[in-house]
């Protein structure tokens, strides 16, 4: 007979716990983890500051038209994930200390003081980083990235520049005051931790779970999680600045083939060879026979060589947006005056956003392979560069810098690659200087004196002069018309740099060797990279002017090119024939419509050809956009362009890693290819 479960004589079986009991039990368990309340409080402070920072930056981006309101929900959700994970990382040291310290040790006076001091320092740091992110975003339209990592390598120049350019002291004082007001609110969490009596076994699950979550987050997410196709700024806002900084630091010496799109090596070399080939070049090796781009350049069809004293003024942050002759703001009357008497290339782009990228391109004609310039890579010595050819042609190359040449490894690189280096420590005392260097007027006057001495010794001048004045904190000598000594911002910087160029040009024209000189003016990069595009092409446009009386006819050339094409073009104007292994081309020999430009922006690289830009992203992404001369827009994939972009950067990376880009030990065979 079946027993009734509700019969009078039978006991009812136990029922499962009601679902509502589980949250209550979980809450009770969490209340039992009182020791970790200081870490939880700090985590919540970090989340609050990160959210406030994101809201402020989103407001800036919305006001600038860089993101739309429809993007905000995704930014909020993805951003909360990044903030939670980054906050967990930030709190792990405190969590570990609270876990492992015995109660008796935790309650000592020294431990309590250390806990309070640590929480005060952490809250101050969180608040101050929020302010720092605002200023960084206003400058770069980005979270902390590899630029921030590179700057911290040279703290003297960077921190003094920050102090002079931004309200660092005010921001730090406000952060300290806000943290001092906030920390007492957390005293209940500290008391709970000090009163907690849980043993090691009971208090271990939570920190072990936190460590496991941190490990899973490290393996399962990266900055690609935050990226937004065709809108770089939206991806930056979804990320977390602290996370982005440590991601850049971790990937500072990345394995390029592992993280970027690739091709079969034979195809990559074939495409790269086709891209650099010109009518006057002959490859020195067949496929697989050595450096794939090693070739002989024959300029004898233009006539005999025309040796000139070559002076390259590499101008700090002088973007085309300021140059009147290029349709810019008109702040460069002297440069415009010189350009009218010179050959001006009107569609030239910087390869990167840092001075070392400009130096790399002009001196070595290399594509801007991430993450950093060849000036700072291991094995930077004996790289094939302009001095390699200039010395063979009888020149005496010099690199002259108004600052300290230890910055960004400048002196070490140029000194190890055939240039005699002259920096601030070698120059006479200037009438004015700031943390970046002596004023441009004195720098160029000193350089001209050096050239006079070289000419008097019978040397042929070949020089790169790197200016510094057009840079924050924008401080200048007194008495320059139209240039306030301070407070004039970027316009004052550009006008002062132009003023110094004009004085140098006028002084050069009075030299007896002027008509035997070639003056080259080119920027190292634009003033500020801005915009929502993955690679904001418009802000990379720069001037490139060649003045050589009686040798170069004044005019304008609109061929699309980049800084990597500067060196081959100058050697072509000098009618030198030479063996080379660089990646640039002579702009004056590029057939109509076949020009291209190479770019690096943060971790992305790109190739612009015609009206299409192919961008290779960290993580193997590839995208094509259309370019109308002003802005980029999504476009259908262009397989040929994308494969060419992949090829040129892949071959450049291999050339650097394999040692191919070093100077050849002996003259390479002029064998057929």
Sum up the structure in keywords.
44% helix; disordered N terminus; 673 residues; 19 strands; five-stranded antiparallel sheet; globular; alpha/beta; 23 helices; 14% strand; disordered C terminus; nine-stranded mixed sheet
Give a written overview of the molecule.
With 673 residues, the protein is an alpha/beta fold. The chain has 2 domains: 31-252, no CATH class; 259-658, Alkaline Phosphatase, subunit A. 44% of the residues lie in helices and 14% in strands. It has 23 helices and 19 strands. Strands 3, 4, 5, 6, 9, 10, 11, 12 and 13 form a 9-stranded mixed β-sheet that branches. Strands 15-16-17-18-19 form a 5-stranded antiparallel β-sheet, covered by helices on one side. A 3-stranded antiparallel β-sheet has the order 1-2-14, with no helix packed on it. Helix 2 (37-63) packs parallel to helix 5 (109-140), helix 15 (265-276) packs across helix 23 and helix 20 packs parallel to helix 21. It starts with 20 loop residues before the first helix and ends in a 15-residue tail after the last helix.
* CATH topology annotation of the largest domain: Alkaline Phosphatase, subunit A
The CATH superfamily of the largest domain is identified as Alkaline Phosphatase, subunit A
Q: Give the biggest sheet.
A: 9 strands, mixed
Structural class: alpha/beta
* E-strand count: 19
- Total of helices: 23
CATH architecture of the largest domain: 3-Layer(aba) Sandwich
Mean pLDDT: 89
How many domains would you count in the coordinates? 2
State the separation between the terminal residues, measured CA to CA: 99 Å
Q: Percent helix among the residues?
A: 40-55%
CATH class of the largest domain: Alpha Beta
